[in-house]
Design a protein that fits this description.
The protein has six helices and no strands. The protein has helices at residues 2-13, 17-33, 43-60, 67-78, 85-110, 125-130. Helix 1 packs antiparallel against helix 2 (17-33) and helix 3 (43-60) packs antiparallel against helix 4.
Length: 131
Amino acid sequence: MYCSFLQELGIELKVPQLTIATAMMFCHRFYMRQSHARTIGSGCFLQTIASVCMFLACKSEETPRCLNEFVVVAYKLIYKWDPSASRRIREIYDKQKQLILIGERLLLHALAFDMNIEHPYNVPPLQRNRL
């Protein structure tokens, strides 16, 4: 459920696929330690945690995005079914910003501050420059 959301979010933020894959791995690691059962009824919570994973993945893969841009894009994607969401973001922007920052601390704690991810398809830097 959160993998497709992360893919959409990554495309909207224009981050590389490696960053998206890192965010997915962070989500997997988070839910290895946290119960899905507590969050089944709350789709917004799953997407909020996924957004936090993407925010942290952007930092760890050295493709940082501005928090202001990130909050707006993530909120619009979470509530894409609601046409008034783009107008409402101005009213609750500070709350969403704090939610991302608090979620980042929660995620770091759940990951035990281990942000090292080794992807099986990681392209070596020399090959990346030739592409």
